[in-house]
Amino acid sequence: MTESPLQAADDMVVTLAYDLYLDDDELIDSSEEFGPLEYLHGHNQILPGLERAVTGLVVGDSIEVGVPPERAYGTRVEDSLEVIPRQAFPDDLEMEVGMELELVDSETGAEMVAYISDIGPDAVMIDFNHPLAGETLFFEVKVLEIRPATAEELAHGHVHSHGEHES
Ligand code: ZN
Predict the structure, then answer these.
(1) Which of 72, 79, 131, 138 could in theory staple to 21 by disulfide, Cβ–Cβ 3.0 to 4.6 A?
(2) pTM of the predicted model over 0.85
(3) What is the chain's Cα-based Rg?
(4) Measured in angstroms, how far is the CA atom of residue 155 from the centroid of ligand 1?
(5) Per-residue pLDDT reduced to its tens digit, 15-68
(6) Rounded to the nearest whole angstrom, what is the distance from the C-alpha of residue 15 to the centroid of ligand 1?
(7) Distance 164 CA to ligand 1 centre (A)
(8) What whole-number percentage of the chain has pLDDT above 90?
(9) How far apart are the CA of 150 and the centre of ligand 1, in A?
């Protein structure tokens, strides 16, 4: 008797090797550099367009998938740039282009995410668009491992790697 192999499906922990390219073939992210991606399928842990493409795959399967902006980091919104005086940032903050900032609107108290897009001596330009907004992302993905999530992982909605407990 042979058991049918586990498929990538809701409540499974899936481990992927991946390369991520932009449409000009620029490689911007790879598991070669950062290690495989381990995630809990069906719990909004990865881009919806990628998760949909991986659904139903088994260990050893490879796919190439293009994820349009609407299912990745969104389309670009115009007039999303803002210039902020350098002294508005903490002195010890090591800023770099692309860094994610969590901001609070001083009038409404709403929390917002922005990204540093340029750094000058006196001012910093921030962009409320994600750096990958407007980009179609091309993933080359290989499924390395699939296992059922533990009850604790399902309760938490994320993976506990290598048996260690994470809150
Ligand atoms: Zn946890």
Answers:
(1) 138
(2) no
(3) 19
(4) 8
(5) 999 999 998 889 999 999 989 999 999 999 999 899 999 999 999 999 999 999
(6) 17
(7) 9
(8) 71
(9) 11
